[in-house]
Each structure stands twice: as C-alpha cells, then as structure tokens.
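Researcher: I'd like a structural prediction for the single chain below. Treat it as a standalone chain; there are no partners to consider.
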Amino acid sequence: MSLADPTTLPHDLIKDGSDAGFMTDVIEASKSQPVLVDFWATWCGPCRTLTPMIEKAVRAAGGAVKLVKIDVDKNPAYAGQLRVQSIPTVYAFVNGQPVDGFQGAVPDSQLKAFIDKLTGGTSANADIEQLMSLGEESLVLNDLGGAAQAFAQVLTLEPSHERAIAGMARVYLADGDIDQARQTIAMAPQDSRDTTVQSVRAQLALMSAAPPGADDELQARVAADPADHQARYDLSLAQAASGDLKGAVDSLLTIVTADREWNEQAARKQLLVVFEAAGATSDVARDGRRRLSSILFA
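Model: Treating it as a single chain, here is the predicted structure.
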C-alpha cells in the first residue's frame, strides 16, 4: 500500500490537545479507534525528535490510529493523573483506557511495531474491502450517510481507489446532487476500465440527454400514436434520467421490436448505454440483454 495522501487524511488525525478536550479527543475518540497521546514540552530536545517521527508514523498508518499532542507545561492535569515523570512519554488509549506506552525517543522501526501491535496489524487491503462492502450495503439500504462515511474512509487509505470514487459519486446521485457527482467522478481517470466508474458516467450521460417536457406529456404522445418512435425514444431518455432504467429498457425494446433500424439503430445503441448505467450484473441489464438478443436473433 502506498502512503495515504496527506491532503485526504481526516482533519483531526493529528491534533494539539488540552486538558479541557482530553475526554473528547482521547477517551471518547479511543472508543472507535486507537489514540496515541504524546506528552511533550517546548524545552524538551528529545520531544522535538520524537514528535515528527510519531506524526509520520500515524500518517503512514492511513487513519488506523489518531495522535493527540499534549504540552505538559500548559496542560499538567492528565499528565499528573497518568504519572508522567519524564518526557517525551507516549500512551496508547483503546476503549477509553491506556493500554500501552513508552518513554523517550525510539527508532522508526519501534514506532511502527508499536502502532502495528495497537491496530492488530490489520491488512490495509482487508480494511478497504470491508469498508467497500459496508459502503455498498449502505447504498442498497439507502443509508447515504453510512455509505459516504465508508467510501470516504477508503479514500483516506487509498485516494485513487476508483470504486470508492464511484461509490461517493453514487451517493451524491442518490442524494440528487448532480453537480457534486460530476465533480467526484472526474477524480477517476478518463480511461478508467472500472465498471462502477463507467456506470456512473453512463448515468450522468443519460441525465444530460433528457429531453425537455414531462413524462406525462411524452406518455400521452406515445399513447396517441404507438408508432411515434421519436416520442417513445424521448420517453426512454426521460425515464432513464429520472432513474427508471427498467422503464427506459421497455420503451427502447418496443422500438427495436417494431423497427430495429429506426434512426440508424438509435434505440439499440441507447440500450447499451442504459445497460452500462444499470451495471453489467444488474437484473435490468441481464434481463434487457436477454430480451434484446431474442428480438435480434429471432
């Protein structure tokens, strides 16, 4: 795993703490992930060596652990309670309790081992897959907040993760924020072969292609003249733009059934875009492809 991009790490991954904020920043925060507390002072030479090393190690951990730095001269209360007798002293908190610690400057290898032990040496790839599964499940349940949090955590660990970028874009789409969805999916490479990235881009393309006029008006035109392929095609665009991909497939297949060559096979070509937007393994795409094949090869 490459190191996480510092600009994408949580803003509170490393922070200057205080006695007043200790309960929130350390005790409560450690109930969701390990927190390191670095007790230091401005006059302490070894502190000036150790603190940057800890910051680097915490950033390298990609969000698996947080760091709170406490200046003992300005904030002596918790240092006293924890019997900090020399600095630098580092304590590790988990579930609101100090579970490990060390004193004095230590080499990088020891810092890494300390953090690995604290986090259980969890594989970053395993973390990412677990978070992606959580994000996908949350999207299915329409828990947009949970999905966004999961995908954001993946991007903290791996800023260029294309499925997570697409996941965030899907969250914005589900929330109706089309502009933010466009900006988010633009973070993925233009030549991305990831199917979820392609699906989001296809959905956005469908939304852009929606013709003016309400669905009811287009439905009325089709009802008045079932052979009006342009009206039915426009209806399919409107259906797709509103998220009714199954309805769009039905409309387009009706055109293909009646005249597969209409407008230089526009209906068949548009079906492929809808299938891509729905996702290759979706029921909409699989059923639509089966029906299209039965029409073309009948």
